Amino acid sequence: MDKKIKFIKEAIQESVKSVSGNGGPYGAVIVKDGKIISKAGNSVTNDHDPTAHAEVNAIRQAAHELKSFDLSGCEIYCSCEPCPMCLGAIYWAKIDMVYYANSSDDAKEAGFDDSFIYEECSLPANKRRAVFEQVKIENADEAFRKWKEKKDKKEY
């Protein structure tokens, strides 16, 4: 069996398990060197955590397993095209390849429409649905300045 099919089937299996366990209908599997490092379903409602999407859960597990926040060399197999938050997490984790089964249109048809988030991201902060206001105070950038000066920082 083609490895892509094998791992996508695992992600779909995680999504089905997630629904059975009262999570959302999403699953993800992270693979490195042909071996499954982590697999997870959506646990937003179970964990009372809006960030507990399958992809984020799988990334957290893989990072813990590999003892690294850098998941270069890994692939993620998702039951559905990742949402904007998960896409951001995938990029921050430096995952090399994303495979997915269902499209964002399929998710929309099931009641999960994230297209408004993409639209919101393209708007200036003062035009977004959520109210954004920058609070300018002296030394707000202290942590950034210290980070730039830090000699022993671990880049990510």
Q: Can you characterise this structure?
A:
With 156 residues, the chain is α+β, with helices and mostly antiparallel strands. Helices cover 42% and strands 17% of the residues. It is built from seven helices and four strands, in the order H-E-E-H-H-E-H-E-H-H-H. A four-stranded mixed beta sheet has the order 2-1-3-4.
Features:
globular; 156 residues; 4-stranded mixed β-sheet; single chain; 4 strands; alpha+beta
Rg from alpha-carbon coordinates: 18 Å
Question: What's the pLDDT, averaged over the residues?
Answer: 95
Q: State the major sheet.
A: 4 strands, mixed
What overall form do the CA principal axes indicate? globular
Number of helices: 7
In terms of DSSP E residues, the strand content is 15-25%
> What is the number of strand segments?
4
Distance between the termini: 36 Å
Task: Provide the succession of SSEs.
Answer: HEEHHEHEHHH
Q: In percent, how helical is the residue content?
A: 40-55%
Tell me the structural class. alpha+beta
Short description:
It contains 7 helices and 4 strands. It is of the alpha+beta class and 156 residues long. The protein has a 4-stranded mixed β-sheet.
Walk me through the topology.
Blueprint: H1 3-20, E1 27-32, E2 35-41, H2 44-47, H3 54-66, E3 74-80, H4 84-93, E4 97-102, H5 104-109, H6 115-121, H7 142-149
Helix pairs in contact: 3-4
